[in-house]
Write a structure and sequence with these properties.
This protein is mainly β. The protein has one domain: Jelly Rolls (Sandwich). It is 12% helix and 45% strand. The chain has one helix and eight strands, in the order αββββββββ. A four-stranded antiparallel sheet has the order 1-8-3-6, with no helix packed on it. A four-stranded antiparallel sheet has the order 2-7-4-5, with no helix packed on it. It is elongated. The N and C termini lie far apart (108 Å).
């Protein structure tokens, strides 16, 4: 009898893990987290603008022209000089405008037709940043001499302005 009880007990020990593994499997729990991020995008359109400045220089004269530009390349070109030929030295400069002074960033004291100055406006501001073109008599024209010129400034600006 002890033997049969021991056999039954051993059989129960052997079958217990097998029986414990039976039954309905537990359903897995799935947690889903959905994150929606909404971003606002705006598109700013830029266009090129060409400012044209015509003027006259007299002995010791200087003329300043201002314009506003958005970041990007600025190109200033001496388009015409009249009279042409052997001209007295003409200064051409491009700079930033502080409301009072044209602070030249790039310049030449020997501008002729076709002379170009290049600079990059890199500071974004609202309203767009102020720049200037300066044309001046470098060495003092002869008395009564008048130099006519045309200068252009090519730059970027906000479209529609």
């Amino acid at each position: 009898m002890i033997r049969s009880v021991c056999r039954a007990f051993l059989l129960a020990l052997i079958l217990a893990p097998l029986v414990a593994g039976c039954g309905s499997p537990a359903s897995p729990t799935v947690t889903t987290t959905t994150t929606t991020t909404t971003t606002s995008t705006s598109t700013t359109a830029y266009t090129t603008a060409t400012e044209t400045y015509d003027g006259s220089l007299i002995t010791g004269g200087s003329n300043v022209y201002t314009f506003q530009a958005t970041p990007g390349l600025i190109t200033v070109t001496m388009v015409t000089l009249t009279p042409s030929g052997l001209l007295p030295a003409i200064g051409l400069g491009l700079g930033t405008w502080d409301g009072t002074t044209c602070n030249l960033v790039v310049s030449t004291t020997a501008a002729i037709v076709g002379t170009q100055l290049f600079a990059t406006a890199s500071i974004a501001s609202t309203p767009p940043a102020a720049f200037c073109v300066r044309v001046w008599d470098v060495n003092g024209f002869a008395a009564g001499y008048v130099q006519q010129y045309e200068v252009t400034a090519l730059h970027y600006k906000l479209a529609g302005t």
